[in-house]
C-alpha cells in the first residue's frame, strides 16, 4: 500500500469545459472567466489552492481558453497606465492574479471526461500526491476545506475526497460515496463510489463535491479505466477501484464538509453566489443590502 508523506505543493484545475449552460455568454468567453462580483470565478479557486499551501498550479484547458492564461499573466501596458495615473489600489488588484502562484497549462485535446483531464496532469505531477479543484465549486475562504483534506492525506496517505450531505432526492446529480465512520467526526473511510446513482440505488446521501487530494497511484488506475457513464473516463470509477482495493494506492478517506459552497456551474446558484458574496463585502455590502431589502419588499 502506498503511504505518501511528501508535502503536497501541486494543484490541478480542469478547465476545458464548454460552459454550455451559460450560452451565449460563454460563446467567446471561458465560463471560468465569468465574474463573481468583481473577480473571475477561476481566481477564487486558485486563491483557495494557494491558501492551502499549494503554490504550483496546473490548468488543464482546451480551445478558446487563452483568456485564462492572460488573466494570470502580467499585463505590462495596463500596469504602466495605472502607474502613470497613480492608481495604486487598482494596480495592486491587477497584479494580484499574476503574483498568486506558479502557473502551468496543458491542453486536454479530446473532451473525454474528468478522469482523462486528471490523467493529462500526470507528466507535470509525477509521483507526488496532488490536489484537484473543480472550477464550478467555490468554497468560502472562511471554511478551509482543502487545508483539512491535505492534513488528512498527509497523516493517512492514499486519497481524500470532499463530501457533503445532500437531500437524497438530489443524489442522482452527484457521485455518491459508501462510507464507514472513523474516530474523527468529519472524516469517513470511503468503501465505494457510484457516479450519479438512482436514489433507490444510492448507498448514502454523501455527495462528492469538487475537491480531491489524490495519491499518484490514481494515474495508473485511470490508464486502465474504460469509459463509463456518458462515454467518458470517470474519476469516480478510478477512485472506486482505489477504495475497493487499498493495495493499489492506499485508502480513500472523505472529509465531510458543512461549510459554505457556491455552485457557479448552475445559473441560479451562480446568481445567488454573487448576491451572497456582495452582501458580505465591506466595500459593497451595506449599500447593496439596503437596496436588496427595498427591492425584495417592493416585489413582494
UniProtKB/TrEMBL annotation:
Family (UniProt): Belongs to the UDPGP type 2 family.
Transmembrane annotation, as ranges: none
Keywords: Nucleotidyltransferase, Transferase
Catalysis performed (reactions): alpha-D-glucose 1-phosphate + UTP + H(+) = UDP-alpha-D-glucose + diphosphate
Protein name per Swiss-Prot or TrEMBL: UTP--glucose-1-phosphate uridylyltransferase
Principal EC category: transferase
Documented EC number(s): 2.7.7.9
Organism: Streptomyces iranensis
Gene Ontology terms, MF aspect: UTP:glucose-1-phosphate uridylyltransferase activity
GO biological process, one term: UDP-alpha-D-glucose metabolic process
CDD domains the record matches: UGPase_prokaryotic
Ranges where the Nucleotidyl transferase domain occurs: 10-274
Nucleotidyltransferase found in the keyword field: yes
Keyword Transferase: yes
Gene3D superfamilies cross-referenced by the UniProt entry: Spore Coat Polysaccharide Biosynthesis Protein SpsA, Chain A (3.90.550.10)
PANTHER family to which the protein is assigned, alphabetical: UTP--GLUCOSE-1-PHOSPHATE URIDYLYLTRANSFERASE
